[in-house]
Protein: Aminotransferase-like plant mobile domain-containing protein
Organism: Rhododendron griersonianum
Amino acid sequence: MSHSALTLRAPLQLLQVWIWERFPALGPHLNPVRDGDPILARWHMVKKPNTGNVELAMALSGRCFQWRPYVMAETHQLIHKLYGETEKWVSVRPHLVEVWESFGRCVRVADLVGLDCIEQYFPHCVAMQFGMDQDVPGKVVFHSDGNSEIEWKNYSRPISDAKLYIPSHYFESDVTTRYLEWWRNSNGTKGVVKEAGNI
């Protein structure tokens, strides 16, 4: 059997932080964050944990997956201004509060412009990470011509003439009944639920 090597270069630190935030049992102890510090400052120069058996740790930590780790932010963090004690509807208009405008961009389908690439972004496929119940992902038609300047202008255009739903800090998202039925009936899941029930 022959093995081939793969060289991968990417900002894997971002992926590592994403994993540590959502699987807290796998991550190190966090640094305290001062007022105005970016969220990533919590991970600066932390001591990497000695996980040992990563496969076992992942299996055990899957039960405590954090869909919205940022809602636990201290009151001085900008994200805390987004999620309040209760849900709210915000009228979207020019010169909207920055944190609401950012959230609006996060939940809007778009072409994301990267370094020498344009990727389609479908936030409705990962609604739970925004504190919303996951529904069956629908199809979205894009009319992209691959021009990064046009796509960037489209992404950064003002958000207007809409209402934005901001879930409560305490809301725990789940899947809709329609999603659950779709999942049970999809061909890719035959036997998965049965096997999980036997564990």
User: Anything to note?
Assistant: Helices lie at 12-22, 54-61, 98-106, 148-155, 177-185, 192-197. The chain is about 25% helix and 10% strand. The beta strands are 88-92, 110-114, 117-121, 162-166. The CA atoms of residues 10 and 140 lie 28 Å apart.
